[in-house]
């Protein structure tokens, strides 16, 4: 019996290696992206493997996981003492240890070096690599051996600029610059690589502006969402005045300060208005702002929620608000729309693409305009119903993993010269 590799490329399933420098299945979006992309690629007939550093993703049956262990220096008590004699022979281990212990984030480059060694040994097993925004220079060398498609979410240079601006001392700014030193290598890698999937047009444009890369090889494919978890439930009653938002961190880019300022404007005119934030309240600017505005008893923070609990919160919300200053896509408003919640977003990055004509869009940082939009939605039941219907139609039409995988496969086929050839099912 022939092995798959014995068939001509045009007559067998594509062998796709999805790569991700870390893929935590529950924290952040990396593991979720890897899980959903690989599931959809497999359903479309591809043979799929995943190479990842820790934390490792959760994958469907039939998808191979190739573990490329890192030093995982965030999980050790003393990173300075974590290097062992056996590590000295590994350029990846040396690079990761040195970067971490000099205040930089070196996991992406170290992962790419490990992947480069793996491809040198076993690259013949795959037709193409689909990388989840590692963007390190070894990826450009790998692309000389095996075609590399890179997913672009959003440039970390934007996060770096907000982090530096938010630091209150010279030392804090210097440390933030050092931590984000990988941003310069990502820009070089983006210019050296050729083929990309961007999760929004805003991601495509912002990468071009921040890195100087050529956008000719970039195709836009919106992320999908989990439509099995995020769906309406007519039996759940929406709670009057409940505003829901999501903030994974207490940083300026998330725009939580703008939303709280908007709520402060509504405090007297809309006494039933209250805010639930999916996230944790820690000591920091948000907690101080709640004290200054007298809103501590009207703002609630919830964390550690399951998908089902998040969906239930969206079903109870009168309106979902995302006031972020930039998002490369925006899963929370898309998931809220899928549960029938009206959404209000800022014009930061891809948020207007997510909301489309189903939501209301306000200028970034404009708490007065945001307050007016929230009041309009809270006061108008017919508007809420129309926004709910339009939002459901939008997410069900556009934000699907099968579409994302299909557009990715189309790019694979073009890169491999298979645009007009048929591929047999697995």
UniProtKB/TrEMBL annotation:
User: Is-annotated flag, keyword Disulfide bond?
Assistant: no
Q: Which residues belong to any copy of the Glycosyltransferase subfamily 4-like N-terminal domain?
A: 27-227
Transmembrane segments annotated in the record for this chain: none
Known SUPFAM superfamilies for this protein?
UDP-Glycosyltransferase/glycogen phosphorylase
An annotated Gene Ontology molecular function: glycosyltransferase activity
EC number, UniProt record: 2.4.-.-
Xref: Pfam families = Glyco_transf_4, Glycos_transf_1
InterPro entries recorded for this chain?
Glyco_trans_1, Glyco_trans_4-like_N
The record's keywords, sorted A to Z, are: Glycosyltransferase, Transferase
Domain Glycosyl transferase family, first and last residues per copy: 234-391
Q: What is the enzyme's main class?
A: transferase
The organism's place on the tree of life at top rank: Bacteria
Q: What is this protein called?
A: Glycosyltransferase family 4 protein
Q: Which organism is it from?
A: Glycocaulis abyssi
Upper lineage: Bacteria, Pseudomonadati, Pseudomonadota, Alphaproteobacteria, Maricaulales
């Amino acid at each position: 019996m022939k092995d798959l590799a014995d068939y001509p490329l045009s007559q067998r399933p594509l062998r796709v290696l999805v790569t991700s420098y870390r893929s935590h299945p529950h924290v952040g979006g990396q593991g979720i992206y890897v899980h959903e992309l690989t599931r959809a690629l497999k359903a479309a007939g591809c043979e799929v493997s995943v190479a990842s550093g820790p934390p490792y993703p959760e994958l469907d049956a039939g998808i191979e996981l190739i573990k490329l262990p890192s030093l995982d220096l965030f999980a050790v008590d003393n990173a300075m003492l974590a290097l062992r004699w056996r590590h000295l022979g590994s350029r990846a281990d040396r690079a990761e240890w040195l970067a971490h212990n000099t205040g930089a984030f070196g996991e992406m480059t170290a992962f790419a070096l490990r992947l480069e060694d793996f491809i040198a040994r076993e690259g013949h097993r795959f037709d193409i690599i689909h990388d989840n925004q590692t963007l390190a220079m070894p990826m450009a060398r790998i692309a000389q051996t095996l075609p590399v498609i890179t997913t672009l979410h959003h440039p970390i240079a934007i996060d770096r600029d907000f982090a530096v601006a938010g630091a209150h001392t010279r030392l804090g700014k210097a440390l933030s610059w050092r931590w984000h030193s990988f941003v310069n290598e990502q820009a070089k890698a983006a210019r050296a690589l050729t083929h990309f999937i961007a999760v929004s047009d805003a991601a495509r444009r912002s990468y071009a502006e921040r890195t100087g890369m050529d956008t000719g090889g970039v195709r836009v494919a919106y992320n999908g969402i989990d439509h099995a978890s995020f769906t309406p439930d007519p039996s759940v009653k929406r709670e009057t005045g409940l505003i829901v938002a999501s903030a994974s961190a207490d940083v300026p880019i998330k725009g939580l300060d703008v939303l709280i300022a908007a709520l402060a404007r509504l405090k007297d005119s809309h006494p039933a208005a209250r805010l639930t934030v999916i996230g944790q309240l820690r000591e920091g600017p948000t907690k101080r702002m709640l004290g200054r505005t007298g809103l501590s008893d009207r703002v609630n923070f919830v964390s550690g929620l399951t998908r089902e609990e998040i969906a239930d919160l969206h079903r109870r919300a009168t309106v979902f608000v995302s006031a972020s200053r930039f998002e490369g896509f925006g899963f929370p408003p898309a998931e809220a729309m899928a549960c029938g919640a009206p959404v209000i977003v800022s014009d930061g990055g891809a948020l207007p693409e997510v909301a489309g004509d189903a939501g209301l869009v306000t200028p970034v940082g404009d708490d007065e305009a945001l307050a007016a939009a929230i009041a309009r939605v809270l006061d108008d039941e017919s508007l809420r119903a129309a926004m709910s219907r339009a939002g459901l139609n939008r997410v069900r039409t556009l934000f699907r993993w099968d579409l994302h995988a299909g557009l990715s496969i189309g790019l694979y086929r073009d890169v491999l010269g298979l645009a007009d050839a048929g591929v047999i099912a697995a």
